Amino acid sequence: MLLSDVPQGVTVSVCAIADSELAVRLQELGIRPGQAVTVMHRSGNYAVVVGVGDQRIALASSLASTITTGESSPP
């Protein structure tokens, strides 16, 4: 499932980031394959706010659609 399609309140694990240039920037922000992220807020089709650790990161929906996710492993 793409991160842009994950419902609010759901925690998923990042599987892959399609754009390699964006992947570098996202990894600097803590979004990398294997990382659990929680969709904290959705702003229609415009943006997704995700929780990564103790950070909140706003992503454009177009960027979130380049991130493939899967089920998150329990802590």
Structure description:
The structure is a single chain. This protein has 75 residues and is an alpha+beta fold. The protein has one domain (3-71): SH3 type barrels (Roll), CATH 2.30.30.90. Helix content is 17%, strand content 43%. It has helices at 20-28, 61-64, and strands spanning 11-17, 36-43, 47-52, 55-60, 67-71. A five-stranded antiparallel β-sheet has the order 4-3-2-1-5. The mean pLDDT is 94.
The overall pLDDT, averaged over residues, is 94
What is the strand tally? Answer: 5
Number of domains: 1
SS-based class = alpha+beta
CATH superfamily: Ferrous iron transport protein A (FeoA)
Low-pLDDT parts are none
Q: Layout of SSEs?
A:
Elements: E1 11-17, H1 20-28, E2 36-43, E3 47-52, E4 55-60, H2 61-64, E5 67-71
Antiparallel strand pairs: 1-2, 1-5, 2-3, 3-4
